[in-house]
Amino acid sequence: MVLIMQEAKKSPIPLSFLIIYFDMKVMQRNNARSGPALIAAELPRPEPGEGELLIRVLAAGVTPPELGWYPSNYAKDGSPRKGAVPGHEFSGVVAALGKNTHGFQEGQEVYGMNDWFADGATAEFCVTQASSVALKPATLTHEEAATVPIAASTAWQGLVDRAKIQPGERVLVHGGGGGVGIFAVQLAHLHGAHVIATVSPNQMKLVAELGADEVIDYHASRFEDRTQKVDVVFDGVGGETLDRSWNMLKPGGRMVTIASIDDTAEQRVKDVFFIVEPNQQQLVEVAKLVDAGALRTFVNAVVPLEQASDAYNGSLMNKRGYGKVVITVPGDE
């Protein structure tokens, strides 16, 4: 809480003092041309509306490109947006219920996502639709659970919903050691596919253990020279890697990409690009797979809320080299 004292004779407000409450710490996007990626601020704690939950955030996943995406710079109506709070996947505790939020109770441990245009979870609290969260996997810590919602849902929606992979098909995953790629490899393997993954040298052993039948060090060789044509390409890299992948598809093959594109992209790239959407049932199914030991997740590095800027600008040291970076938010004393 910040208390601002104003003398009545010097203020147009007919009060001897004005109390303004700032009861939530956040890290906001820095709109200045220089300085840190995120800056510390205090905002009023949000209130959940109809169909919404207020989440006490304990951990938030980091998606660095998010700071340059449209919702971080513009509101839904197209007006400029400043000071966006990033981090749209989280693990935490239900702190308050809006109307018509059936199936949830205060104090439940949950994980999930919230709207890209809303303030995210790099904060002590965030608001989300009840339909965008599920009970946290019981076997995961909050830090581990925060790596799952966007990454696992993206892999699921790309491979299952869009590519409709089938048992026995050949699936090429670009960026197999990344936050999303790790789940794409595992889900493709669980669906009975023959999985080929391109990775960095330090990721090869892990990705093979997760179910990749062929693991290609993209530093050492071109994937076109190391494997045969495939039924599905799941691209998490974009650029030249995506361009070279079209020729890897068999007749009737399917391409999906999550790499950022702009208005200059080819139409065929726009047609296969997608952005993940919250899906409660998928989060429920993912949690079951995690708790059964069929899906694994990995925390690349953990930083406290006040160091969130380092997580977004890529300056973190001592990372594992695979998985997602997580921001932790201290709980109440």
Q: Quote the CATH topology of the largest domain.
A: Quinone Oxidoreductase, Chain A, domain 1
Secondary-structure-based class equals alpha/beta
User: If helices are DSSP runs of H or I spanning 4 or more residues, what is the number of helices?
Assistant: 10
Instruction: Give the end-to-end Cα distance, rounded to a whole number of Å.
Output: 17 Å
Average predicted confidence as pLDDT: 91
Label the CATH architecture of the largest domain: Alpha-Beta Complex
Largest sheet: 7 strands, mixed
CATH-level-4 superfamily name of the largest domain: Medium-chain alcohol dehydrogenases, catalytic domain
> What is the share of helical residues?
10-25%
Description of the molecule:
With 333 residues, the chain is an alpha/beta fold. The protein folds into two domains: 179 residues, Alpha-Beta Complex (Quinone Oxidoreductase, Chain A, domain 1), CATH 3.90.180; 122 residues, 3-Layer(aba) Sandwich (Rossmann fold), CATH 3.40.50. Helices cover 23% and strands 28% of the residues. It contains ten helices and 16 strands. Strands 5, 6, 7, 8, 9, 15 and 16 form a seven-stranded mixed beta sheet that branches. Helix 3 crosses helix 4. The N terminus is likely disordered.
